[in-house]
Amino acid sequence: MFRLLDSIQTGSLLDLRNRAIFETLYSTGVRISELAGLNTVDVDFDGLVIKVSGQGNKERIVPIGQKAVRTIQRYRERLYREAGQALEHSGPLFLNKFKGRLTPRSMARCLDQLVRACGMLVPVSPHTLRHTFATHMLNAGADLRAVQELLGHESLSTTQKYTHVSI
Q1: Beta bridge partners of 21
Q2: What's the predicted TM-score (pTM) here?
Q3: CA distance 43 to 103
Q4: Contact of 52 with 42, CB cutoff 8 Å
Q5: d(CA 82, CA 30)
Q6: 101 phi, psi to nearest 5 deg
Q7: Are the C-beta atoms of residues 89 and 40 closer than 8 Å to each other?
Q8: Model confidence over 60-111: pLDDT tens digits?
Q9: Bridge partners, 95 (sequence order)
């Protein structure tokens, strides 16, 4: 899928935003609601981490990949150029066409459009990317408890459901 994504041009601002959403979801394993709640100030572009407010308003720090950070930076720089005004540093990370916060449902629709543009016949939901993140972490040798913390699960048994597809 990633090779297919790389072949898609990020010509428009929306294409670039949608790609940044995809990259961030896969790179961090955060819930779609957590991603929708991110503000620009929650991203440490140099430290490659994001501060996420999870379920029950519990905050956690989650690493984010360089590729996702670069894509977010390109999106934000282009948004600044095309908006013609300074964007609030404390405002939403991902914006809709009215410069308001994207909802989780809108983000899911963006992901659907991106997947269709790749020509994939299998549906890919935001939770699929979360599951894929966890599976890849476990397959790469990550400790189950570390994955539990990254996903923001209270119980280890919740995280263990991801192990049945792991090598």
Answers
A1: none
A2: 0.83
A3: 18
A4: yes
A5: 28
A6: -70, 135
A7: yes
A8: 999 999 999 999 999 999 988 887 656 667 889 999 988 899 999 999 998 8
A9: 101
Work out the angle between the directed axes of helices 144-151 and 126-139 (0-180°, nearest 10).
Answer: 160
Give the separation between CA 57 and CA 34, rounded to whole angstroms: 10
CA distances from 62 to 3, 21, 50 (A): 25, 15, 5
Instruction: Report the 10 Å Cβ neighbour count for 126.
Output: 23
**For 48, left (φ over 0), alpha (ψ -120 to 50), or beta?**
left
pLDDT number for residue 3: 47
Contact between 72 and 43 (Cβ < 8 Å): yes
Counting beta carbons within 10 angstroms of the beta carbon of residue 82, is it exposed (0 to 12), middle (13 to 18) or buried (19 or more)? exposed
- Whether residue 39 contacts residue 91, with contact meaning beta carbons closer than 8 Å, is answered with yes
Pairing of strands 59-63, 43-44: unpaired
DSSP-derived secondary structure letter, 14: H
Structure confidence by residue, pLDDT tens digits, 4-48: 445 455 578 888 999 999 999 999 999 999 999 999 999 999 999
Answer for the pair 153, 159: CB distance below 8 angstroms, yes or no. yes
Average pLDDT, the chain: 85
- Please, where are the H alpha helices in the chain? 2-7, 13-28, 32-36, 66-83, 104-117, 126-139, 144-151, 156-160
